[in-house]
Automatic annotation (TrEMBL):
Residues 19-87 form the HTH gntR-type domain. Signal peptide: none annotated. InterPro entries: Tscrpt_reg_HTH_GntR, WH-like_DNA-bd_sf, WH_DNA-bd_sf. This is Transcriptional regulator, GntR family.
Length: 337
């Protein structure tokens, strides 16, 4: 029996399906996020509402929501409700949209020969198990960085390696969060920025391979800054002052030594916005760009700190991924002659 959800939340529960009701609801919510039907900050029905409309136990929906919250797809706000999270997990899920499109095409073909959704799901699972039995497991890769300013680096690395990359927050690992530590210790390769390489190496197992990728200021940004007069004052503004210090170090490492850099956190700027008028230029992280532009009377002086990945580091990373995957393939062939 198929139980429809209300039209404002298009989910169905099939009691005859070969997967559990919990898994059906979880996967359908993830699908809605992946295809854009649910977007960050969108509200979900309350536990009571969804349980009533689907005709399932209240505890089932509560367990589904708790799982999705713990996995980073949803966020609960006390007194307000449950919402789609604005998180790395959600961004990762959106990258699966092409996979869902392929599954849709496969199901359309299956309906022509009369397969039901349940039969298609069972057949797809059986095929996946059969194919996977003779293939080496995909490499488990994690990327570790601080929460602030990590998204762009993460996307750049994932674009380069073209493999699934799980994002872990360094703050969670330092706090010894069990789930984050479990994911880290299960990884085939741990990737981080050179800046945090030592910290991550100390947390990882001694035999784990940790690779650092250096980021460097974008050439256009360096050209802009280099054209400014000697001892010009440039404000470097990030969410936190420590990140602005990191920005300063990267610029100086790139060879910019004639500029007077002044790192600031966003809170310091909020307390003294007049400081913007004293600077020759302002270099900001993407997270604070819009806020800073509200205060700056000369928008042309505001530069965004864009960056690129170190080509040598990326080449080393790709080579190691290929070598480890090849080694896994040999082990798989030996185990299944």
């Amino acid at each position: 029996m198929v139980i429809p959800a209300p039209v404002w939340f298009p989910i169905i529960v099939d009691t005859s399906a070969p997967i559990t009701i919990n898994a059906q609801i979880v996967e359908q919510i993830k699908l809605l996020i992946a295809i854009g039907e649910l977007q960050p900050s969108n509200a979900l029905p309350t536990v009571t509402q969804l349980a009533k409309h689907l005709g399932v136990n209240h505890n089932t929906i509560a367990a589904v929501y708790n799982y999705l919250i713990e996995s980073g797809y949803l966020i609960a706000q006390r007194g307000k409700g449950t919402f789609v999270a604005n998180s790395q997990a959600v961004e990762n899920l959106v990258t699966y949209k092409q996979l869902y499109n392929l599954l849709g095409q496969a199901f359309n073909a299956a309906t022509i020969i009369g397969l039901s959704p349940s039969e298609f799901g069972g057949a797809a699972y059986a095929q996946a198990v059969m194919v996977n039995r003779h293939q080496p497991a995909a490499l488990k890769l994690v990327f570790v960085e601080c929460l602030q300013h990590s998204a762009d680096v993460y996307k750049a690395i994932q674009t380069e390696i073209k493999k699934h990359l799980l994002f872990l927050e360094l703050e969670d690992l330092k706090a010894k969060q069990p789930k984050a530590l479990k994911e880290l210790l299960a990884a085939d390769i741990v990737i981080t920025t050179v800046q945090h390489l030592w910290e991550v190496t100390q947390i990882a197992e001694s035999e784990q391979e940790v690779i650092g990728v250096d980021i460097k200021p974008d050439l256009q940004l360096l050209t802009q800054i280099s054209s400014l007069p000697r001892n010009a004052l440039i404000l470097l503004i990030c969410q936190e002052e420590s990140r602005s210090e990191d920005m300063k170090n990267m610029l100086q490492k790139a060879g910019v030594s004639h500029i007077n850099f002044q790192p600031l956190g966003l809170q310091q700027l909020q307390q003294n916005p007049q400081v913007l008028e004293q600077a020759e230029a302002v270099c900001v992280s993407k997270e604070v760009e819009d806020y800073v532009r509200q205060y700056s009377s000369l928008l042309s002086r505001v530069m965004v700190f864009n960056f690129s990945l170190n080509e040598t580091n990326v080449s080393v990373l790709k080579a190691r991924l290929s070598a480890i995957q090849l080694a896994k393939s040999h082990l798989s062939i030996a185990a299944h002659p």
